[in-house]
Amino acid sequence: MRSLILAAAFMVSASAAFAASDEPIQPIQPAKIANPAMVELGKKLYFDPRLSKSGFISCNSCHNLSMGGTDNLKTSIGDHWQEGPINSPTVLNSALNLAQFWDGRALTLQDQAGGPIANPGEMASTHTLALSVLQSIPAYVAEYKNVFKSDKITVDGVTKAIAAFEETLVTPNSRFDKWLKGDKKALTGEELAGYELFKDSGCTACHNGAAAGGNTFQKMGVVEPYKTSSAAEGRVAVTKDEADRFYFKVPTLRNVELTYPYFHDGAASSLTQAVDTMGRIQLGKSFTKEENAKIVSFLKSMTGDQPDFKLPILPPSNDSTPKPTPFNK
Amino acid sequence: MRSLILAAAFMVSASAAFAASDEPIQPIQPAKIANPAMVELGKKLYFDPRLSKSGFISCNSCHNLSMGGTDNLKTSIGDHWQEGPINSPTVLNSALNLAQFWDGRALTLQDQAGGPIANPGEMASTHTLALSVLQSIPAYVAEYKNVFKSDKITVDGVTKAIAAFEETLVTPNSRFDKWLKGDKKALTGEELAGYELFKDSGCTACHNGAAAGGNTFQKMGVVEPYKTSSAAEGRVAVTKDEADRFYFKVPTLRNVELTYPYFHDGAASSLTQAVDTMGRIQLGKSFTKEENAKIVSFLKSMTGDQPDFKLPILPPSNDSTPKPTPFNK
Question: For a disulfide at B206, which of A160, B174, B250, B295, Cβ 3.0-4.6 Å?
């Protein structure tokens, strides 16, 4: 599956790459959980704010699983209420991305997971500190040992567990997926017309595959420059190749009704606005109000099964656990 | 039950007030859920950061149900990372309290729930703004109508629903409760010795009833003044009676292993330290290291069943929903 997605990425337009169906978007497959104990450990870590310096910010703070795996803010809030430089992308279906972060600077979910913990503008901890917090908590040590057969908690293990949990965060069974699988009544006429217009307009050149995106980097502003106050440069920050300036990972459109506001700068607060901007700057099209509404209606049919698990209960700290320090720099 | 607790409160020392058992601490009873639909609505609201101005802080941020219903910080973090004036008390078993907040300024959970939403140092919204956010979201309007038979969402309904959810957050079935109910093997010898010492030392004068606290206001520093940098004055702020200066609601000891750090100023980071300080300033006792350890061991036997429900999925905002404004004052 992963190799198929990578292949699709290199083909840029991937509409023909999937043999399973003639449609450019494929159904999301349910997660196959290889190691439930690792997933459970990763789930706790994902919800644990003690991975941050302040003891207040967890992965779930900015990738909130109650809210489409995002924070629904233009840009995120970090340690000491710092304003983040970029919109927090959804963690839902992120295992389907060809790389992580808007500029793809992490190749895997595991690589990604270590970043925010030690980013001074986000969780503001260090890997050393976060590990010493976890190592001080006997229940974490026991759970870690059960999963990794080691008494010593490492960044590699922690990020592997978080990634294993994140890999379960796929959202199958949207109405659109039901339609793709043959239930022709799953979409309304309006939604189906929106999907046809979405394809005919060229949106699927970038938004294709199971995630309807996430599998290529594309320039933001193909036909018309994108005006933004964001300083984010895109993929050039990773490749140092000027040709990659303003190239960003195409965001998934799965659950897009939940993952507002849109674009890397969070500048589009509504789907209507996002569709309008994309039409203009990427495709040179001005959608009428009716066309726009049809596409939006289609997009909302891609909301799938949301995370379905019990709120994790975290093991307590104790006298030997390093204390959070929210109020000193 | 409530009237019994209030009666106990007025008797100050309540050891004889409970007919059910000779013990001064009573088992926690499981929640009786009268209106499941109201509880479900309240649960969503409890987890919804859109009740804050920033869109980032929910009830669960400072009363985190993954962490004993607290934030495990000395004092809480509010809007724009403001440092709160007081330690965030646990929401677990808070329905058993004679009043809410450390100074008891809210008589009911419903009264309490409205406070943080509009407190500029906490969630920093206004009731008007929070209501207009909720009213804009059709799924909330429908759920509210189902519960309250009204199309118009009010503060009264919102806080009633949050309180109904909070009333379910009781934690029965601790090992100590099992012992109270007759399972004499539920406690170790050390824990039982700790409980005997806890009673013999006079701790149960204040920490009694089902919540082992929460049912009286008491002076912090009976025998010896309590030294603190906290400006909190206690109950006098409510009653304007100088005799109530430094009187605080006795905190529950239920789940105390999870609700660190301790006291209204969060100054005691460990149970060992908390037991030592309480012995000295409230009872004029210096516990030996061994005695202290016994009491701590008993206290840890009061951790009960933690919240057990699925992570709520929140209904999305839409174009008409007022936007969060995390970065302007």
Answer: B250
